[in-house]
């Protein structure tokens, strides 16, 4: 009876997304009912939010062969499914210390991004995701830079593209140029991640503007109290200030 109720709820779009059952059960229903791909993506997203990574991956790995795709936006959703799973493997690889395991995760990401290329190669979010992956790989900075430039030519306020471009310029010690791109990411985007403020703080620090660096680090910590980079930045500023009270504060940070 419960299985039948969940089956009806999924097909009617009424399933409680905060109380999802095991992925294997959901997968069986999705297959049986020939559910559209966009619903698979919605369910996968909620498994991710609930940190149920096994179920998240399970749906994304099976949706291409089992989901219904007879609707207008199906190509974009196919690409999104591939890109989302690729980004997951990039994240795993970035955190992995074992070289072989890291290589395996990155290999899966490369394969998925290549498949997505064949669907909508010039989609902005797809290009930016792939470009950030190129930066992580270490030897593809020029390729990443070209992709960021392509996206920014179409959408100059694109947050992730501006952040990627800023990272490239920062690593080239063009701190003024990097700061400009962090500011573009911030302009008109009230929901920018704390990492934008952190990046601005690092640029201000390198440019010798410690006052604005401190403001940026403090704002980043307001947005994300766990921002390690911002904590370290503030600690360094306090320790270098020569002010006794700030020295004590810097040590405590």
What proportion of the residues is helical, as a percent range?
A: over 70%
Strand content: under 5%
Report the count of strand segments: 0
Note the overall shape. elongated
Largest sheet: none
Number of helices: 14
Which stretches of 5+ consecutive residues score pLDDT under 50?
Answer: 1-5
Structural class: mainly alpha
Instruction: Encode the helix/strand succession as letters.
Output: HHHHHHHHHHHHHH
N-to-C span: 56 Å
Mean pLDDT: 87
Give structural notes:
By secondary structure, the chain is mainly alpha-helical. It contains 14 helices and no strands. It has helices at 2-12, 23-32, 37-49, 53-66, 74-95, 99-117, 124-137, 141-154, 159-171, 175-186, 194-206, 210-223, 228-241, 244-252.
In a few lines, what is going on in this structure?
The chain has 253 residues and is mainly α. The protein contains 14 helices and no strands.
Give the key terms:
253 residues, 76% helix
Which helices and strands occur, and which strands form pairs?
Layout: H1 2-12, H2 23-32, H3 37-49, H4 53-66, H5 74-95, H6 99-117, H7 124-137, H8 141-154, H9 159-171, H10 175-186, H11 194-206, H12 210-223, H13 228-241, H14 244-252
């Amino acid at each position: 009876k419960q299985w039948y109720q969940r089956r009806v709820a999924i097909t009617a779009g009424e399933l409680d997304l905060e109380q999802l059952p095991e992925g294997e059960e959901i997968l069986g229903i999705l297959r049986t009912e020939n559910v559209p791909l966009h619903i698979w993506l919605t369910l996968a997203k909620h498994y991710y939010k609930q940190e149920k990574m096994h179920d998240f991956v399970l749906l994304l790995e099976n949706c291409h062969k089992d989901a219904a795709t007879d609707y207008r936006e199906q190509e974009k959703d196919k690409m999104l499914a591939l890109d989302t799973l690729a980004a997951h493997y990039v994240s795993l690889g970035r955190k992995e210390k074992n070289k072989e395991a890291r290589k395996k995760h990155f290999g899966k990401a490369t394969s998925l991004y290549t498949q997505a290329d064949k669907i909508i190669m010039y989609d902005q979010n797809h290009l930016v995701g792939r470009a950030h992956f190129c930066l992580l790989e270490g030897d593809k900075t020029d390729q990443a830079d070209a992709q960021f430039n392509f996206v920014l030519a179409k959408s100059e306020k694109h947050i992730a593209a501006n952040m990627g471009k800023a990272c490239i310029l920062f690593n080239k010690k063009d701190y003024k140029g990097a700061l400009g791109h962090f500011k573009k990411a911030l302009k008109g985007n009230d929901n920018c991640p704390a990492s934008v403020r952190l990046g601005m703080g690092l640029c201000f620090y390198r440019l010798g503007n410690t006052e604005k660096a401190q403001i940026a680090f403090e704002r980043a910590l307001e947005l994300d109290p766990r921002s390690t980079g911002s904590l370290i930045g503030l600690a360094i500023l306090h320790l270098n200030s020569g002010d006794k009270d700030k020295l004590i504060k810097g040590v405590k940070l």
